[in-house]
Amino acid sequence: MRLTWKTAVCAAIVVLLPPASYAASGSSYLFSGEASGWALGSLAERDNTWNVGARYIPAFTAYKESGAGKMLDLYIYLNAFAAASSIEDYDNYDLDLYRLVFRYATHRTETRIGLQKIAFGPAMVLRSLMWFDSMDPRDPQQLTEGVWALRFRYDALDNSSLWLWSIYPDGERKGLEIVPGEKGYPELGGRYLRPVPAGEMALTFNSRQAEMPGTGIDFRENRIALDGKWDIEVGLWFEAVLQHQNEDLIPMQWRKMLTLGTDYTFGVGNGLYMVLEHMGIFMSSGAWGSDEDYQTTSWMANYPLGFIDNLSAIGFYSWSTEKYYQYLAWQRTWDNWILHINAFHYPETDASFSPFGTGQPLMGTGGQVLVIFNH
User: 147-155 and 109-116 as β-strands: parallel, antiparallel, unpaired?
Assistant: First the structure.
């Protein structure tokens, strides 16, 4: 169990606070949390697995208005979980810091420093811009590891926005990264978004020092991306990324990614919402062309059965491995409770690329029951 001094201090703060919101001396405080438990089983060709566990994420928020539209906030979230599995040496329990964010906001600016989530881009399932998070569209909790960062955002009067960030890597991979960032070398980047007719477009850039684990080889990696989204009868969007790894020992230093997507709500029953996306990843030794590529197509559907029940389904087809992944879920939401039951079929594959980011999906055919309680 990894219990750092930062986690211990944050845990003490959360435990000592009253389990309700209150105001004192011009400041407001709020303690809340999310508890969840799950049971999962999978039948696969190579092995059958099961996994059970529980998680609790206590959240403490403190905020104070300093006048003239200025706000100072503090967010502390912990992640306490315990899990057991049929996989050998998998049993695990931990108490760790999930979010620690100091935020200062004015009418037009927002500055955040600490362990936070940084996510952007219009794609919903196959995200070429999944640079700093690993949010899974199949996860109703939308859990993802944060990054230690300083982030500044400016919102202009014409609805354009500018993001600037500096990220301190912890030596772990994030998003769709193949190798982690090198500790001690901050990543620098930014994003500029502006409105266009019937939509918006954005330009994003990030530069980092990366390191191949166990080799001592480090190199500079630069990424630049262009994305856009429009609403013209149907929703249309794209994400295009160009990435260069400046290291001669890497045979294919250039990586290009392109996601194309569309969505529409059909007037069937209570309304059938559909999403279709296609992602291509192209690897090459030069800036142009492709020596190796991965192609994936996905679809997603959501249908409300009523006020508290919802059906959803997601399908992935890998054109490279000729494998089809299927996922079906039913969710009931009432008051503070959520019951989420899903079934899946993920064929085994030896492909090194996964559209799910740093988290690989379970292989085989199975299902999961997830219960969530918010307070």
Answer: antiparallel
pLDDT in tens, 292-329: 889 999 999 999 999 999 999 999 999 988 889 999 99
pLDDT tens, position by position, 236-258: 999 999 999 988 778 888 999 99
Q: How far apart are CA 80 and CA 17, in angstroms?
A: 18
Whole-number Å distance between alpha carbons of 137 and 344:
14
Torsion of CA 173, 112, 258, 328, to 10 degrees: 80
> E strands of the chain, at which residues?
22-24, 27-43, 48-67, 70-85, 92-105, 109-116, 147-155, 161-168, 187-196, 199-212, 217-232, 234-246, 254-266, 272-284, 292-304, 309-318, 323-334, 337-346, 364-374
Other CB atoms closer than 10 Å to residue 4's CB: what's the count? 11
Task: Report the C-alpha dihedral over residues 206, 124, 116, 190, rounded to 10 degrees.
Answer: 20
Question: Mind listing the domains of the chain with CATH numbers?
Answer: 1-107 (no CATH), 140-374 (2.40.160)
DSSP lists the bridge partners of residue 258 as 240, 280
Predicted confidence at residue 1, as pLDDT, reads 44
Element of type H or E holding 9: helix 5-16
CB 40 within 8 A of CB 340: no
